C-alpha cells in the first residue's frame, strides 16, 4: 500500500484508487493521521481533512480508538414477502391486501392532466389532509406531500442535517428508518422502549450525546407494537422543551388503523417539528404517498427538495388518494381493517401468554416475541414446522443475529392456525433451549 499526495484532495484520491484496485479491502485499517502525515511530509490537518472527505463519501469509517478503516457494503434488511418459499410467511410486515379499499379506484376521475408549474399539492388532498392533521396538531403548520414515509424521513434529514450528525432512533427500530440513517451517513444513538414508549432517560441520553434530530413512533411502533401513554408523552415533551434545537419527527405510520390514541411528544411552541402520516398501511403500500405537517421553516427547507422539475409527487397519485379517502365506503373499510388487525393481534398475544411466552405491545400489524433464547435457533425450529418468521436482530441499531426476539405478522391466520402457531412456537423455543 502506497498512499500518495500532498493535498487533502490528492491523498483522498490516492486512497480511493487503492480501494478501487483492491489494494485496500473492507475492514482494513488506514494509517493513523500522525503516521501518514509524517510519511508524506504534510500537516496532520491535511490528512485529517482527507479522511473526513472519504468518510463523507462513505469510503471509510472512523471507529474511534479503533482507527479509520475501509468501509464495507452497508447491510440492509427490508420488509416484504420472502421469494420462492414453501413456508407460511409470517415475516412480511404487510397489510392484508383483502382489507385495502382498492375497489374505489375505478370511480376516481383522472381526466384533467397536471402540467409543469402546477401546484405541488392537489387541492382536494390539501383540503382533506389539512383538516385531518389539524386535529392531531392544532398549531400553525404547513403541509407537504412525499412519496411515502421513508421518503419523508430521508428528505427531512437531508434538509436539516450534515453528514455525521447524530440522529436519535428507537431501539429496536423500523427497518427502513435504520437504512435511511445508515445510508445517509448519519450517526445513530439508540433510545430504548418500555411498555409506555421511549424512555425519558433514553431521550435525555440521546440529546446529551448530541442528537440534532429524534424520530419517535407515537403508536403501533414497528416492530414492537408499543404505543405512547399520555403520561409518557407529557414527560417526553418536558425533555424536548429543554432542547429547542432538536428536530422532532413523529412517524405516525399506523394512524387511521390504530386502536390507540395519538399522544404527541412535540411541546407547545417547539420551533422544529414534523408529523408524518403514511398512507401505505390503510390505502396500500404501492400508493407511495405520505402527508407531512411541519413548522414553516422545516417546510421551506423541504420545498427546495420537492419542487417542479425535481421530485414532486404525482398529482395522479394524489387524486387517487383523495378519491379513495372521500369515497363513502372507505371509512367502513378502514374500521373493519383496524378492528381485524387488533383482534388477530390480541388473540395471538393471549395464546402466547397462555403458553408462558413473553410478548410486547398491543397495536399494529405485528407481534413482537421475547423468546429468551437465540432468535436464529427459534427461527430454524419454526422452519422445520413450516413457518417463516422474522428474527429480531435486524431491528436493533447494533445488529445482533443472536438477539432473542422474533417478529410475527400473523393477521391472516384463522383461530385454528393461530393455535397451531402458538403451539409450534412454544415447541420451537423449547427445542432452542435444549440446543
UniProtKB/TrEMBL annotation:
A GO MF annotation of the entry reads: pyridoxal phosphate binding
What SUPFAM superfamilies has UniProt attached to this entry?
A: PLP-dependent transferases, Winged helix' DNA-binding domain
Entry's Gene3D superfamilies?
Type I PLP-dependent aspartate aminotransferase-like (Major domain), Winged helix-like DNA-binding domain superfamily/Winged helix DNA-binding domain
UniProt keywords (A-Z) are: DNA-binding, Pyridoxal phosphate, Transcription, Transcription regulation
Please list the residue ranges annotated as the HTH gntR-type domain.
5-73
UniProt similarity note:
In the C-terminal section; belongs to the class-I pyridoxal-phosphate-dependent aminotransferase family.
Name the chain's protein: Putative HTH-type transcriptional regulator YjiR
The species is: Microbacterium azadirachtae
Which classification does the entry list for the species? Bacteria, Bacillati, Actinomycetota, Actinomycetes, Micrococcales
Amino acid at each position: 500500500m502506497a498512499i500518495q499526495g500532498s493535498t487533502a484532495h490528492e491523498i483522498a484520491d490516492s486512497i480511493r484508487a487503492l480501494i478501487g484496485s483492491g489494494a485496500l479491502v473492507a475492514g482494513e485499517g488506514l494509517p493513523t493521521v500522525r503516521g501518514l502525515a509524517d510519511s508524506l511530509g504534510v500537516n496532520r490537518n491535511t490528512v485529517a481533512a482527507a479522511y473526513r472527505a472519504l468518510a463523507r463519501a462513505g469510503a471509510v469509517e472512523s471507529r474511534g480508538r479503533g482507527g479509520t478503516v475501509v468501509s464495507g457494503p452497508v447491510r440492509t434488511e427490508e420488509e416484504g414477502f420472502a421469494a420462492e418459499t414453501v413456508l407460511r410467511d409470517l415475516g412480511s410486515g404487510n397489510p392484508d391486501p383483502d382489507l385495502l379499499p382498492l375497489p374505489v379506484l375505478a370511480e376516481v376521475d383522472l381526466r384533467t392532466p397536471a402540467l409543469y408549474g402546477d401546484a405541488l399539492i392537489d387541492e382536494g388532498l390539501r383540503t382533506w389532509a389539512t383538516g385531518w392533521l389539524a386535529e392531531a396538531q392544532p398549531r400553525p403548520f404547513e403541509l407537504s406531500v412525499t412519496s411515502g414515509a421513508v421518503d419523508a424521513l430521508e428528505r427531512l434529514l437531508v434538509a436539516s442535517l450534515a453528514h455525521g450528525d447524530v440522529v436519535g432512533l428507537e431501539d429496536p427500530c423500523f427497518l427502513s428508518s435504520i437504512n435511511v440513517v445508515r445510508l445517509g451517513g448519519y450517526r445513530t444513538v439508540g433510545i430504548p422502549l418500555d411498555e409506555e414508549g421511549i424512555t425519558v432517560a433514553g431521550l435525555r441520553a440521546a440529546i446529551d450525546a448530541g442528537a440534532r434530530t429524534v424520530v419517535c413512533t407515537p403508536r403501533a411502533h414497528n416492530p414492537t407494537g408499543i404505543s405512547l401513554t399520555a403520561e409518557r408523552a407529557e414527560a417526553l415533551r418536558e425533555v424536548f422543551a429543554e432542547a429547542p434545537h432538536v428536530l422532532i419527527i413523529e412517524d405516525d405510520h399506523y394512524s387511521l388503523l390504530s386502536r390507540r390514541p395519538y399522544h404527541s411528544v412535540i411541546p407547545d411552541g417547539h420551533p422544529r417539528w414534523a408529523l408524518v402520516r403514511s398512507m401505505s398501511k390503510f390505502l396500500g403500500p404501492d400508493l407511495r404517498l405520505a402527508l407531512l405537517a411541519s413548522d414553516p421553516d422545516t417546510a421551506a427547507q423541504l420545498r427546495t427538495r420537492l419542487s417542479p422539475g425535481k421530485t414532486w409527487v404525482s398529482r395522479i397519485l394524489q387524486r387517487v388518494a383523495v378519491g379513495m379517502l372521500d369515497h363513502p365506503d372507505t371509512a367502513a373499510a378502514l374500521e373493519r381493517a383496524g378492528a381485524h388487525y387488533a383482534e388477530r393481534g390480541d388473540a395471538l398475544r393471549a395464546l402466547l401468554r397462555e403458553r408462558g411466552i413473553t410478548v410486547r405491545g398491543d397495536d399494529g400489524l405485528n407481534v413482537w416475541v421475547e423468546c429468551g433464547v437465540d432468535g436464529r435457533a427459534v427461527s430454524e425450529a419454526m422452519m422445520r414446522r413450516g413457518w417463516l418468521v422474522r428474527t429480531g436482530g435486524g431491528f436493533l441499531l447494533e445488529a445482533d443475529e443472536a438477539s432473542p426476539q422474533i417478529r410475527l405478522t400473523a393477521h391472516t391466520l384463522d383461530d385454528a392456525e393461530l393455535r397451531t402457531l402458538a403451539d409450534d412456537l412454544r415447541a420451537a423455543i423449547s427445542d432452542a433451549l435444549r440446543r
